[in-house]
């Protein structure tokens, strides 16, 4: 019999086994996974020469960080003030940032290098915010400051990471044309501070750039702006220089989007909110008679349906208050085909119907006919026939189902194919809706007794939700009582617009003309509605803040 112990446990085999185990262990070593995400931007370890050096004569500045970094959008984010004809060169070497000055420096002048958001770490892209380097070629550094807060003119909320900048009065003509060299970003509380400024007169601005911006040059079509009309005379530190941002109305009307949809409808989007809009098909004129036009609430978008799509081209004139603003042209090929599905949405919330509303269907096409015989209503599985199918008197996209809905019942509405017919003879496919009636005691009512500061003025009183969207608004010019009745229980607020020109809407500002937006006041009292509760409140509107 062979010696098994000698055969399987020889020194050679033992060495092979140990080697395999070691290799296996080495192969299984991995970088630890998970852990908290790095949210810390690179930290500055040193600056050479030191920040705020006097009698500066160097040509190179070195900033050392505690980790590797990238330089992002250098030409958008980095600036030097005063400007130089040949901008400094930025170069990264390991964990050091080297700035080489290419141009000569003026005597007895304070220079500020502003890096904006150009420095960020390699892994998580954490940005070093408001990084700057200051030096003076003379014995003193300009040390004046301007500080304040930036808020939204409409919502009164603080504006984060908004660019605040100043322009010397003699260079204000560069506004909107060239990137400013003296700027900073607001913090998470909307506060800003501009440092190392010299005495002088300045214009100050705040720009909230749209997504995809970042060049710090105001673009009226997309950005929001805040400004102070009068120049700042800087002779000592200035605090509470507050700014309110707003979206400026376009100075000239323009159609910013127009298209012939794949269902045959026409979509038009404008750069202004029109007051009394109207659309007319001017060519071919015969098509105009049967058209259907739907404007959104803000009158800056229109949808048009034409019964006759046999045209090669069609011209549509856009009017406001009786004046033609622009005429647009649409072309189509005779072989064009369209896809149309008649789909409805409704006014249910979480499967429940507001007891103070009728059940409402909203379609994507103008409805031309409805057949109640193709609608089946079940109440707790029992068929009911005493309902009404009613066309909305104003909105041709809506239909109502009226019925004495009851609490604690389950309703099922079934719509057979062809229950509704829309323009182009489009018919619905079968669909069903199941819901219950919300209890009336889930709603509340607010009676608001309002005192105005000046009966010669006009005020827009808006009842707004937590998202600061208006639920209901009323225009008043004297002491009044307004009822906000039967709204879902929840948190609400009241916002008041000082309607200076008495046109019933909030008017925004205009930078070129130095016009600020109409003032808005938010009540500090939360107008919460409790379920099944009628609340009475008194609201004293203060005079507009100066």
TrEMBL record:
Keyword Signal annotated: yes
Stretch forming the signal peptide: 1-29
Keywords recorded for this protein, A-Z: Signal
Pfam families on file: Big_5
Domain of life, per lineage: Bacteria
InterPro entries referenced in this protein's UniProt entry, alphabetically: Carb-bd-like_fold (IPR013784), SbsA_Ig (IPR032812)
Annotated ranges, domain SbsA Ig-like: 38-137
Record-given protein name: Ig-like domain-containing protein
The species this protein was found in: Pedobacter punctiformis
